[in-house]
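Researcher: We're reviewing a set of sequences before deciding which ones to prioritize for further study. For each one, I'd like a predicted 3D structure that I can look through quickly. This is ISXO2-like transposase domain-containing protein. If possible, include the structure in C-alpha cell form so it fits the rest of the review sheet.
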Amino acid sequence: MKNSVYSVEEIKLCTESCSKTFPQCLEMDLDEIIDFLLKHGVLKLYIDCKKCHNKLKLNRKQLNFKCYARYSHQKKKRKQCTFFQSAKTGSFFYKSKIDLVTHFQMIALFLFKRGPRQRFIEEKYGIAQDSIVKSYLLYRDIFIYINEKFETKLGGNGKVVELKEAQFGNCRVRKDGNRYPSFCWAIGGVERGSNNCFFTKIEMRNCECLLAIIKKLILPGTTIISDCWKLYNCTNKSDFQKLSFESDIKLIHPKTKDDLSIVEESWADVRSVVMGKGCRPNHLTGYLAEYLFKRRYLDLNERMHHFFIAVAELYEPR
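Model: Here's the predicted structure for ISXO2-like transposase domain-containing protein, in C-alpha cell form for your review sheet.
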C-alpha cells in the first residue's frame, strides 16, 4: 500500500478546483471524465513503451497506448514496434466490464445518493445485479483504506466519549427451509463536542476485545460512558482496574437514556446505510467504513475528490 503522492497544499488546491456537484458529475462526458481521472492520478497521460522505451501518449478516444516507432532490424530492414496496452491496466477500472462513463456515474450515485440505489442503477443503466454488488464491494474497500489512513484516537484530558454496541444481521432461510441466524456485533464511540468517532466490528463480545479497542482508539484521561461494562462484566476485572489506574480513564455507567443519546443517534445513521435485510457479517466493516467516510466529508462536493485520491493511492496504473 503506497503512500500519498500529494502534498497538503496540492490536495487543497485540487479540491478547490475540481469540486463537482451531483448533477455535474452525471453530465460529464468522456473527455471531462478522463481529465478528472488524469488530474487525480487514476490514469496516466504518458507511459514508456515496454519494448523500445519510446514515450507514449494516451489515446483518449480508444483509452489505450500504442507504439508506432520504427527501428532497425536484421539486414537493415526497419520494423514497427507492436507494443499495445490499455490505459486501464493496473488501475481501479482494469477488470471492470462497465464502460468508463457509466462506471463514473455509478460512483457518483454511490457517493451522493442515499440508499436504496441498486434497483435504480439496474433500471437506468441495464447493469446486472451481480456486477453492481461487486462494484459496491470495491467502493467499500476504498472506504476501509481511507478509514484506516485517517484513524485517530478519541478523547483526552477532560473529554467525554460515549461507547455503545449494536447488533446487525438476521435469520437467513436456506434451501432446506431452515432458518440460520447470521448476526454480528459492532461497537462505536463518539466524542462529545466534536465530529470524532469510530465504529468497528467486534469478533467476540468479551472484556479482552473491549479492552483492546479502548487501548487502540481512546486516549488516556478520557471519561467513557457506556452500558458495556455491565454487559461484559468488566468492572471487577483486574485488566480494567489497571487501565483505569495507569491511563486515568474513568469508566462510568449511564444514569439516564440521554447519557448515550449522541452515540445512539449515530448508530441510527449507520443503520440507514445498512439498508433492507441487513448485511453479511463479512461485509459489515465495509458498511461502517462507508458511514465514516460520508460523515468525514459532509460536503458532498468533496467526496468525489477524496474518493479518487484514495483510488490513485491503492491502484497505481502501470
